[in-house]
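The data layer described in this paper is built around a simple, fixed record for each protein. Such a record has a labelled line for the sequence and another for the backbone structure tokens. For reference, a complete record is included directly beneath this paragraph.
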Amino acid sequence: MTYLIGASGAQQPAGERFKALLARPDILRLPGAHNGLAAVQAKAAGFDALYLSGAAMSASMGLPDLGVITVEDVCFFIRQAARASGLPVLVDGDTGYGEALNVMHMTRCFEEAGAGAVHIEDQILPKKCGHLNDKRLASADDMAAKVAAAAKARRHLYIIARTDAAANEGMDGAVARAQKYLAAGADAIFPEALTSAEMFREFARRVQAPLLANMTEFGRTPFFTAQEFQDMGCKMVIWPVSSLRVAAKAQEELYAAIARDGSTQAMLPRMQTRAELYTTIGYHEFEALDQSIAASVAP
């Protein structure tokens, strides 16, 4: 109900709220929320900010994470998550959807949709998941120009520069790129696909900026807890596709049950009830608000 009867139009911009969360001493935990319902559930679990993964958005549309989706596709997801939760959302901006002018357009569109932060990566199209092999990188200068474009276009959006260079150029290359991106106007750095605690610690020691860690399942980074990432020097951590993976597995099992049994009865114990869903999405609060507005008033 936040966008109907919650905070007023004078609410602090999402980028400023995101930055304020980073001023707190503990690491900022950002679970992936692949749609509005997931965003509501993440907020109910106690999280203060959310993450929108390009891989999760693409998969939600039945597409691979190869830079296929557009700025407007992403804004559709941003509006869902920001409206439903009222929380600042960090958004995967892939490669910026083009060159400098495209990045500026993306920055303004994401802000207007309600995003609090964005990360842009230094791959070239067709981009790949950061934990796959044979990624192709843009030049450091080209990526720095995109970061500078985003910084010039933003009103409040928090800008994170992602580098995938560790796999191709080693730690020295990744650190050099990070420093160039910070000089271009990035607020923070996302060193993707680091493979050990020692690499995280070294990167944090050599790059004096807030760092974002990616705790994706089935990837190159070992499993670490939020506290462990904090101890390594990271300021933010995302679990980008976890919500989608759990939901997709459950849906797969549901459809198999219907195909096998011709019924959903065996799946009932795994379903959210109607009452639980209505509570989650605030159904009765919306209904009461409508009745309070539409009710006739006698003269």
